[in-house]
Amino acid sequence: MEVIPAIDLLAGQCVRLYQGDYTQAEVFGENPVAVARQWAEQGAPRLHVVDLDGAKAGQPMNQQAIEAIVRAVDIPVQVGGGLRTQDSVAELLDLGVQRVILGTVAVEQPDLVAQLCEAFPQQIVVGIDARNGKVATRGWLETSEVEAVTLAKQMADLGTAAIIYTDIHRDGTLQGPNRQALRELAEAISVPVIASGGISSVTDLLGLLALESAGVTGVIVGRALYTGAVSLKEALRAVGPGRWQDVPPDFGSSAFA
Fold first, then answer.
1. How many CB atoms lie within 10 A of CB 29?
2. Which of 8, 53, 171, 204 is catalytic?
């Protein structure tokens, strides 16, 4: 199972939000490129970058920082936040981003998702962020009436490469992932599911391994890595795969601990 560090960009800094609340942003790094390099050096198989400014504005806002991250590391980078047009998606892919993550448009413009999946095969991922089982949109500032599982089925049928599922009530709380919701969603579709939100320990990651057979192939970890509650090297050793074998034995577990 892939363990994927999250880098959330807000006003040029690396932050973590609590339950998606922009007013509860904690800064963990003023240099996102340095943060990205750290995770790559510790063996991360890929990076998950979210343009929080873009998600709120409805258009990408941190392209310069994203391009700098892509150029600084030799692992795949996936990016989401404010991507609501084909041009904005194409622009990020041209910067070297491997996969883009769509959120709001999956609810509001499913035809656009279909077009993008056709134009950029295996490079379109849909992020489904749920609040009490209903899909949240526009940087989690609004909640729709669309059920998460219903949307996941629709997006899988359109050809999305993967689904990222986030339980907003768990995000940034270190309370553990919502395994029941993840299992229900993964068993309902045939494309890979990446878990996100609430990871607090390696034990949480080991618990997700039980869902691998259902289709949960990766997990995004944010706050727990930045606080030192989870060591990326230990996480990769526990659930793999990754590139930890290439890391010198004396490399520290986290500069943020």
1. 17
2. 8
Task: Find the domain containing 12 and state its range.
Answer: 2-246
Helix (H) or strand (E) holding 149: helix 148-158
CATH of the domain at 217: 3.20.20.70
162-167 and 124-131 beta bridge pairing: parallel
Query: Which of the following is catalytic: 51, 53, 129, 167?
Result: 129
Separation between Cα atoms, residue 109 and residue 35, nearest integer Å: 34
Q: What is the pLDDT of residues 162-171, one digit of tens each?
A: 999 988 866 5
Q: How many residues does the chain have?
A: 257
What is the token pair recorded at 245?
A: 């074998």
- Element (H or E) spanning 233, and its range? helix 232-239
Number of folded domains in the chain?
A: 1
- Mean pLDDT, the chain, rounded, equals 88
Q: Is residue 256 situated within a structural domain?
A: no
Q: What angle, 0 to 180 degrees and rounded to 10, lies between the N-to-C axes of helices 179-188 and 202-209? A: 30
Q: Is 9 exposed, middle or buried (0-12, 13-18, 19+ CB in 10 A)?
A: buried
Catalytic residue check, 129:
yes
For residue 171, indicate whether it is catalytic. Answer: no
